[in-house]
Amino acid sequence: MGQAARTTKLLLDLSEREQGGANRDKRRYLEETVAILDAARVFYLHFFLANPDKLMERVEVISKQTGEVADRLISTDKLLTWAEFQTVETAEHPDPLPAWNFSQAFPQFPNRYRRSVIKDCIGKARGYLSTLSNWQSKGSKKGKPGKPGASNHPTLYAGTYSLDLDELDVRKSFVRLKVYTGSAWTWVHYPTRYNRYFERRRSEEGWEQESPTLVLTKQGASLHFLQTKTITAKKIVESKRDPDLVTVAVDLNVKFLAVITVRQHGKIMATRFVCDQGLDAHRYRHLKQVAKKQWQAGKVVQGERSNQQLWAHIRRQNTDRAHKTARAIVEVCEQYPGCVLVFERLRKIKRSGGSKSRRLNRKQANQVKGNITQLAKEKAYAIGVVCVEVNPHGTSQYCSRCGAKGMRFSLAAGQRTTGKGGKLFFCSTCRYECHADFNASVNVHHSFFREYHWQPLAYKSG
Ligand SMILES: [Zn+2]
């Protein structure tokens, strides 16, 4: 059993008033809210770090199921109650610690926000203390962990926000947020860039709603809705014993981002090629530009977009392609319930020659591969498909039909040129010829079942 998680973003409409967006004051309120919550977080971080013993207190817990007494770290809820008792003025407890009077420092601070801040700080302070004690026990002088930062995207627990979504009229969707205006706390309506896609994701069955977070950036503001789902999936070792097991293997490349093959009973049943749709060539063009500008010793060319924007553009394209490729992989998995998804462990790229732009482009391509693996893993897990990574040794060099060592070649004007960069694969032992990426993808299945002599002895499940 495990948990899958995903987020869906809902953008707040902060365009000018005439275009139907929120006015500038509302934008400022969001900034004020984030600022005051950060300030409150600084307060509680200092408070907890001043009381490390309480933070790491061990308490005896009696298990409800077995009745055994266990020694556990004090729970977050108990710590929360304790911290509120020490710092907040209430009718029953009118005098908190004078040095730590939160009610005086932050008057009228909403309870829900305070609790979210305290919980946040407990996590941060505990994480810091445990890395600190690890570092102390190691005894090295270098790498002393830094104090945790206070800024974070505020979590909106129930009571600090409400969604008014009107499905019929998209323009009528609002979110009500409790915000700080700089002097007081009030409820404010924010128009959203609501879409059907958002509603579909939110109402999808099996997903549980968690508290959303408010993410404020230079470009805009959005609410990130977190959803979780409990997944029950078989272990890889168990699946492997099943004679009817379907394996979906993926070979990641540059031009064909993914070559997906499906295998059952030793036979390849389906194949899907996912093309990069010109991403590599497009990125290369931009990187040439970047390399040129870097060579010009940081001089910005007048009238041209800066490298920063260029990088953002490249990053966006990479992520977009990675998401789409991962989606394609999971679409294949969806057709075979109970299948196992097999990837190659990502190779370390060797420092190869070539121009600077070429080297930059290889590095980017490798990062895209990593992103695809990660995203496909998450998306597949959400539908109950477990992913395993196998050793990449030999998958592109050996014949997927007989296991002998073969060679790569390419065809140009009827002429065969053998070489490493060839798109096709040829086995001189059994005269088998096919697309090199397809051959590699089929070999990934062999790696998983360890069927040939060149297969490594151990595989790591992930
Ligand atoms: Zn062969």
Can you walk me through this structure?
With 462 residues, the chain is of the alpha+beta class. 38% of the residues lie in helices and 23% in strands. It is built from eleven helices and 18 strands. The strands form five sheets. It has a five-stranded mixed sheet with strand order 12-11-10-13-14, with helices on both faces. Helix 10 (356-382) links the parallel strand 13 and strand 14 (386-390). Helix 3 packs across helix 5 and helix 9 (307-334) runs parallel beside helix 10. The longest helix is centred in the first third of the chain and has 28 residues, at 111-138. It is globular, with a radius of gyration of 28 Å. The two termini are 14 Å apart. The model is unreliable at 458-462 (pLDDT under 50). Zinc ion (ZN) is lined by residues 399, 401-402, 404, 427, 429-430, 432.
List the defining traits of the structure above:
462 residues; alpha+beta; four-stranded antiparallel beta sheet; 18 strands; 38% helix; disordered C terminus
Portion in strands: 15-25%
Which stretches of 5+ consecutive residues score pLDDT under 50? 458-462
Q: What strand order characterises the main sheet?
A: 12-11-10-13-14
Could you estimate the helical fraction of the residues in percent? 25-40%
Number of strands: 18
Bound molecules: zinc ion
CA radius of gyration: 28 Å
Helix-strand category:
alpha+beta
**What's the shape?**
globular
Rounded average pLDDT = 81
Please outline the major beta sheet.
5 strands, mixed
| SSE succession | EHHEEHHHEEEHEEEHEEEHHEHEEEEEH
